[in-house]
Amino acid sequence: MNVCMAPCPVVFDLDGTLIDSAPDIHACVNAVLRQNQIAPLSLDRVRSFIGGGVDVLWTKVVAATGVDPSHQRDLVASFMTRYHTATSLTRMFPGVPEALGQLADRGHPLGICTNKPLGPTRAILEHFGIDRMFATIIGGDSMPEKKPDPAPLRAALAALGADPETPKAIYVGDSEFDAACAAAVPVPFLIYDRGYRQIPLENLIFRESFGDFEGLPRLIEAEALR
Predict the structure, then answer these.
(1) CATH code for the structural domain at 22-83
(2) What's its catalytic activity (predicted)?
(3) In degrees, to the nearest 5, what angle opens at C-alpha 6 toward C-alphas 5 and 7?
(4) What are the domain boundaries of the chain?
(5) Are 54 and 77 in contact (CB under 8 A)?
(6) Is 6 strand, coil or helix?
(7) pLDDT of residue 226
């Protein structure tokens, strides 16, 4: 039986899970495109490219705009100069601070495992004043591997004290990248159904779905007692 002994570590994805960062990412992408005389993309289009990390994002942007792929490296470099400080349009999803506070008060070690680069990850967490709530933060450039490879999540769980071989912990995310990563570890996966996923919910592996962070602590407590 996969029982989480209290306190059960809980690791979160970031973009599309705790924060709606698509408007800032969209603005940074379009600033680079305009600078290079390339037609901008819509918010919905850019949002659909988020989840796999910066390189995946720009591979999709380059394909969508018909840009010569040989220019991608320069475009990414230009994007990153903006992305490190892009916080003005990003919002936390409703109920996130309260849910994190409840989990921390109950003794759950909290962590972040995201494909977002570590610099912008720390910047946005500090911007919202929640960086100190997380005992470990694994970004998309913290390791050679990115999600859906399980290595980043395993590293986050190990840093929170979980058994590396049979971790008793919970992962919370919003996308197919997160679902596949959790299944590969494996740990139970709770999915925020208002995030950035591009695959129907019924086609993903998860323990529970939720659309309101108010109920997340209850879901985690129930999962920890399984």
Answers:
(1) 1.10.150.240
(2) 2-phosphoglycolate + H2O = glycolate + phosphate
(3) 125
(4) 10-20+91-224, 22-83
(5) no
(6) coil
(7) 85
Backbone angles phi, psi at 201, to 5 degrees: -55, -40
Tokens of 180: 């596949």
Superfamily of segment(s) 10-20+91-224: HAD superfamily/HAD-like (3.40.50.1000)
Give me Rg for the CA atoms of the chain: 17
Q: Rounded to an integer, what distance in angstroms lies between the CA atom of residue 195 and that of residue 214?
A: 16
**Residue whose entry in the numeric block shows the structure tokens 């999600």:** 147
Q: What per-residue string of b and e applies to 130-139 under the rule 16 or more CB within 10 Å gives b?
A: beebbebbbb
Which residue of the set 13, 24, 174, 178 is catalytic? 13
Query: Rounded to an integer, what distance in angstroms lies between the CA atom of residue 193 and that of residue 209?
Result: 6
Is 74 one of the catalytic residues? no
Instruction: Please check the confidence at residue 5 and state whether its pLDDT lies above 50.
Output: no
* Cα–Cα distance, 201 to 84 (Å, whole number): 31
Please give the span between the terminal C-alpha atoms of the chain, in angstroms, as a whole number.
Answer: 8
Question: Is residue 109 classed as helix, strand or coil in its secondary structure?
Answer: coil
Classify burial at 156, counting beta carbons within 10 Å of its beta carbon; exposed 0-12, middle 13-18, buried 19 or more. buried
CB 157 within 8 A of CB 170: no
Give the containing element (helix H, strand E) for 92.
Answer: strand 91-92
Would you say the CATH fold of 22-83 matches that of 10-20+91-224? no
